[in-house]
UniProtKB/TrEMBL annotation:
PANTHER family from the UniProt entry: D-ALANYL-D-ALANINE CARBOXYPEPTIDASE, PEPTIDOGLYCAN L-ALANYL-D-GLUTAMATE ENDOPEPTIDASE CWLK
Positions in coiled-coil regions: 163-190
Naturally occurring in which organism (per UniProt): Planotetraspora silvatica
Domain D-alanyl-D-alanine carboxypeptidase-like core residue range list: 267-374
Name used for this protein in its record: D-alanyl-D-alanine carboxypeptidase-like core domain-containing protein
One Pfam family linked to the record: VanY
Any one GO molecular-function label of the UniProt entry: peptidase activity
Record lineage: Bacteria, Bacillati, Actinomycetota, Actinomycetes, Streptosporangiales
Keyword Transmembrane annotated: no
Length: 380
């Protein structure tokens, strides 16, 4: 039987061992739990990353409104360039055809002159050989000391040589004419082939431009833009028709040349409207709401009303970019210079072709006024 002291020592050792065992088990439990939590978090992070990557890939599949607009305008410009090439090629061909026709006329005239020269000479030589006595030269062959005969024979030889020369010239001219005719045929064939290729190129570009414009219109419609509002026609939001809008005087643009904005009742020229809609999407992602617009396109009558209502704060009627459908006045914080909204717009608007003009910083001071720059918007 162990002594009290030994019993106490044994009890102490057992207690320490027990505590160590519990501690070890707890440690293993904490380690496993921690590893499980890390694994779960990593899985969650991985899943979130995959989802973000998928969303990024999906976004990459859908080009922005700005990209679609630029592509449509580039395709339309390419149509113009190809058409110019076609017109230039036709003019070049017409010029070549005129030169060729002139040469052929010259050849025809030369042939007629040669034929006129050849006929009497040929007739005379044939008459000498066939019936010498009928020409007046024949008797010389039969009498005298032979001098006259030799002279007559020399004349006949001279006539024969002249006749041969005329025939050789005619043959050479005929060869030249045939060569020119062959060149004309080759030129015509090459022109028809190039014309067909250019026509096909123009048709392909037109189809591409039409598809891009259709995609733009559909995208705008999905965003809630009433493209055909007021029966203006879908062409009002066609960025390839801005040259038509540019032909109208300031403040007198028809509805068919103005594209509605996502903000009801507001409108701009097609290229500016599409760029603004794209800018509006980015603004909405940043601030959780659409851009606030107080004014956009202004008719000449509206410009006059604003000019007289706010003297010194509006352009002379007929000179405002509002009248060209290229300017907007904003609110919702943007109207305050230095605000978060103003600073964000100042930092990001140029990517969409919009600028805050230098004059609006001081004379007069209009932080709410923003304009679309077509060259900047086109990526020039």
């Amino acid at each position: 039987m162990p002594s009290p002291r030994s019993a106490g020592l044994i009890a102490a050792v057992m207690a320490v061992t027990s505590v160590a065992g519990v501690s070890s088990g707890t440690s293993r439990f904490v380690t496993v739990a921690s590893e499980t939590a890390i694994t779960s978090e990593a899985a969650s992070t991985s899943e979130a990353g995959s989802q973000a990557a998928a969303e990024s890939v999906e976004a990459a599949k859908e080009p922005s409104l700005t990209a679609l607009r630029r592509q449509a305008q580039e395709a339309y410009k390419a149509i113009g360039d190809a058409s110019k090439q076609l017109d230039a090629r036709k003019k070049q061909f017409d010029s070549s055809q005129k030169k060729l026709a002139s040469k052929l006329r010259q050849l025809g005239k030369a042939n007629q002159e040669l034929a006129a020269m050849r006929k009497p000479l040929s007739d005379l030589v044939e008459s000498v050989y066939q019936n010498p006595s009928a020409t007046g030269i024949g008797p010389l062959f039969a009498q005298g000391d032979g001098t006259a005969t030799l002279r007559a024979m020399s004349d006949v030889d001279h006539l024969a040589v002249g006749r041969n020369k005329v025939l050789d010239d005619a043959a050479r001219l005929l060869q030249d004419k045939e060569k020119l005719a062959a060149e004309a045929q080759d030129l015509r064939s090459a022109n028809l082939l190039e014309e067909a290729q250019l026509d096909h190129q123009v048709d392909s570009l037109r189809a591409k431009s039409s598809d891009l414009v259709k995609s733009l219109t559909q995208t705008l419609t999905k965003m809630g833009v009433k493209v055909n509002q007021g029966h203006r026609g879908a062409g009002a939001c066609d960025p390839t028709r801005i040259s038509t809008a540019a032909q109208y005087p300031n403040g007198l643009l028809p509805k068919s040349s103005l594209c509605p904005l996502p903000q009801a009742g507001r409108e701009l020229r097609a290229d500016a409207a599409i760029a603004f809609a794209d800018l509006n999407l980015s603004y909405q992602k940043k601030f959780g709401r659409q851009m606030c617009v107080t004014d956009s396109y202004r008719s000449l009558a509206s410009q006059q009303a604003v000019y007289y209502a706010r003297p010194g704060f509006a352009a002379v009627p007929g000179r405002s970019n509002h009248g060209l459908g290229l300017a907007v006045d904003l609110c919702g914080g943007v109207q305050n210079s230095g605000s978060v909204q103003f600073n964000w717009l100042e930092a990001n608007s140029k990517r969409y072709g919009f600028i805050h003009p230098s004059w609006a910083y001081s004379n007069p001071f209009e932080p709410w006024h923003w304009e679309y720059d077509p060259k900047l918007g086109a990526g020039v």
